[in-house]
Amino acid sequence: MRKVLIGAVLALLPVAAASAHHGWSAYDATLVLTVKAPLQALSWGNPHGSAKVKWQNAEWDVILAPVTRMEARGLSKDMVSNGQTVTLIGYPRADGSREMRIERVIVGDRTIELR
Amino acid sequence: MLDMLAGLVEGTAFALWAARDPLAYPVANMVHLLGLVMLVGGIGLLDLRLAGAFRAIAVVPLAAAVTPVAVAGLLLLVASGTVLFAADAAALARSQTFSLKLVVLGLGLGNALLFRLWWQKRLPAWDTDAPLTGRLMAMGSLLLWLGVAGLGRWIAYS
Fold first, then answer.
1. Is there a contact between A11 and B18 if contact means CB atoms under 8 Å apart?
2. Most C-beta atoms within 10 A of its C-beta, which of A35, B37, B41, B95?
3. Which tens digits make up the pLDDT trace of A28-76?
4. How many domains does chain A fold into?
């Protein structure tokens, strides 16, 4: 039994970070990206919306916010689908992979904060 | 094994509902937290008593009072956790933290079942004669459940 307990305690020690972290700290906020493009492969879902975007000859993963937050702030799925060009302001992942988390979205003359 | 489970869940009507219904995920999150409060609030209190704290409280009536609360909490956790997993199955299947959480969860359940098997009959005598192994298992129980909770929260940051 003691071995089980010791094993359990060891299991609780800090674990190596994997790479699926979408929290703000995984992104480099000193590099502000401004991307004007239509969203592709839009997923209007939880735990957060996501999409893909073509930028600088590469495909980037775009991390949006939880659905209720986006809708509460006035961003609807219709506003960003149908190939409409939108402006995304966000940050790239600090580890260099092609994924950006979006701080705000500008659609027409409306700016929607996602944080 | 987890990616197999994720493959089974992904694309089902249940998974689509979990991800696309605006309220399913946040409500499941709240229920998950409620279940955690009931589980740790219930069994954690009993664990502390079994380990040797609050000796003015008799073990048997305390166990009878809080165990159903903890079991109900566990059921809420499993139900809401199923929704949370379905909404984000592929990412969770890749998460080492989530895998570790499930392992520690298994240890917690195993520890609870073993405790029942070994010590259930000794509970009436616990107030005067608490076995050391049983007290250690009770402390282990508290640490394991807190570990599961901590790892669950850590999924979002790893």
1. no
2. B95
3. 999 999 999 999 999 999 999 999 999 999 999 999 999 999 999 999 9
4. 1
Hey, which bits of chain A come out as E strands?
Answer: 33-38, 40-43, 50-55, 58-63, 85-92, 99-107, 110-113
Nearest-angstrom CA–CA distance, A6 and B54: 25
Q: How far is B2 from chain A (nearest CA, A)?
A: 15
Residue B47 reports pLDDT greater than 90: yes
ipTM higher than the 0.95 cut? no
Contact B97 A15 (CB under 8 A): yes
- Determine, for residues B94 and A18 on separate chains, whether the beta-carbon distance falls below 8 Å: yes
A76 interfacial to chain B (CB closer than 8 Å): no
Q: Measured between CB atoms, does A58 come within 8 Å of chain B?
A: no
CATH code, domain with A97: 2.40.50.140
Give the pTM.
0.83
Q: Name which residue leads in pLDDT, B1 or B85.
A: B85
User: pLDDT tier at A5 (50, 70, 90 boundaries)?
Assistant: low
Structural domain boundaries, residue A86: 2-113
| DSSP for A57-72, written as a single string | TEEEEEE---HHHHHH
